[in-house]
Each structure stands twice: as C-alpha cells, then as structure tokens.
Write a structure and sequence with these properties.
The structure is a single chain. This protein is mainly α. The chain is globular, with a radius of gyration of 13 Å. Helix 2 packs antiparallel against helix 3, helix 3 crosses helix 6 and helix 6 runs parallel beside helix 8. It is built from eight helices and no strands. Helices cover 70% and strands 0% of the residues.
Length: 113
C-alpha cells in the first residue's frame, strides 16, 4: 500500500511510518525485514522529518538488517541508510554494486552533523 500510495498520490493513501519504525526495532527478524521493505517505499520522497526520525531511532536495527548475507534481505535497509545519509541515487547505486555497507553507514551516521 505504501508503494501504491507513493506511485499514485491522487489516491489519497497516506501511510504513517511510525508502526513500521516500531517493527524495525523489533527483536523478531521477520518484523525487521518486512518493516524495512515498507520503509523503503515510505522513504522514496526522502522526507527530512522521516529520515531524521530513522536516524535517531533505527540505525542499529537497519545495520542489523544490512548484515544479512542475502542482498535480497538486506538491500532495503542499505538503501534506507543511504537515504538517511543524503546519498544520491547514483551514489547508492555504486554502494549497492560494491556492497559498501561501511560507506553507507558512515554517511547515515554523519549526515546532519
């Protein structure tokens, strides 16, 4: 629904990120995984308030998701961290191709300082 609402703003669908941030901080892996997929869509617009909220409340959880062996499971979190770090889509593409988690995490933790 988050992806549809973003792709079709005329639909009037607005999804609050708060429950997904809570799930991202869950101790249950499937909660973190599914929350990161929803937040991937919700951060498409790069809303500064949402990214700041994620920076202050979810970087450890996002990092845990990025540590997964499968890029399919970890990819959404890597992109969200890059968005928190104000990386461009081009920079994120390079980081994805190199699987540069260190550079993305550095950007996420130093953005806004």
């Amino acid at each position: 629904m988050a992806g549809f609402g973003h792709a079709h703003p005329e639909s009037g669908i607005r999804i609050s990120p708060a429950p997904f941030i809570d799930l991202l901080n869950s101790l249950v892996w499937t909660d973190r995984n599914k929350a990161s997929l929803a937040l991937l869509h919700l951060t498409d617009s790069r809303d500064p308030m949402l990214l700041d909220s994620l920076r202050t409340t979810a970087i450890p959880s996002l990092l845990d998701v990025v540590r997964r062996k499968s890029h399919g499971h970890a990819g959404a979190a890597l992109i969200i961290l890059g968005r928190i770090g104000r990386m461009t889509d081009e920079e994120l593409g390079r980081a994805w191709n190199a699987w540069d988690t260190t550079g993305v995490l550095r950007a996420a933790t130093t953005a806004g300082q």
